[in-house]
Amino acid sequence: MRINQYIASAGVCSRRKADELIEEGRVMVNGSVLDVMGYHVQDGDIVEVDGARIEPVTKKVYYLLNKPAGYVTSTADKEGRPLVTELVPDSVRVFPVGRLDLNTTGLIILTNDGDLSNKLMHPSREFNKKYLVRAAGIVTLKEAEHLARGVDIGGFVTSPAEVHLIKHDRNSTIAEIIIHEGKNRQVRRMFEAMGHPVQELCRTGLGNLTIGKLALGQCRKLSPAEVEYLKRV
Ligand code: URA
User: Fold this and answer.
1) In testing the pocket of ligand 1, which one of 65, 183, 187 has its CB within 8 Å of the most ligand atoms?
2) Domains (ranges, CATH) in the chain?
């Protein structure tokens, strides 16, 4: 396997980014900085990126987690906060596909399949992402239509979304929103832009996948059909 594919399939980064790492002298094979772009990894080679050993992926695993608030969507955290990866009961190391904010709950996929992860994260993959939102104040129908048409979230106008108002009380509104993009903190920024800061946010769906009845903090393996679906989309 070519070195850039080896690094990408272990989930470190995309193949293109792996080439950049090699050019920057950050990849070592058997203790020496690699200077051959098209190097083919041999059985027994020790590959390191920035000093960390990259293990070849053997068994591929795919999990869907219902992320609780307070968990970081990452494999490491300088502040020592709890990590989503700690909620996956598998000795195989996994990493999250995409990101949910610290206080967002809901559906996140974790896998050790770097190729699939890179594919899913590519901007051309426009999965529907469905969220249940509790926003401050009463969101009017007009405001919901504005959110659905597109709203300026600071130098960027969001593309059309679906917004369904579910219910409200005197202080807050519950709504469902389906977006096709994944800008940083997009849903929070959209509601903030309308003057209704988000108080609670839960991702309930990603493409055909749904969180279903999975309890907070629980995960389940994706079925072979779900994995195939993600590979196909
Ligand atoms: N939009 C947000 O604002 N936060 C998330 O975590 C996901 C989508």
Assistant:
1) 187
2) 3-53 (3.10.290.10), 62-124+209-232 (3.30.70.580), 129-206 (3.30.70.1560)
As a whole number, the mean pLDDT across the chain is: 93
Told to judge if 101 belongs to the known catalytic residues of this protein, a careful annotator would answer yes
Q: What is the DSSP letter of 137?
A: S
What is the distance, to the nearest Å, from the Cα of residue 9 to the centroid of all Cα atoms in its chain?
16
Whether the Cβ atoms of residue 93 and residue 111 lie closer than 8 Å to each other: no
How many angstroms separate the alpha carbon of residue 188 from the centre of ligand 1? 6
Residue found by looking up tokens 């108002």 in the block: 165
Residue 172: pLDDT over 90:
yes
pTM here? 0.82
CA distance 138 to 167: 9
* pLDDT tens track for 137-158: 999 999 999 999 999 999 899 9
β-sheet bridge partners, residue 108: 65
Q: What is the atom index within ligand 1 of the atom nearest the CA of 198?
A: 3
Cβ–Cβ < 8 Å for 160, 148: yes
Contact present, 129 and 179 (Cβ < 8 Å): yes
Catalytic residue among 19, 101, 113, 169: 101
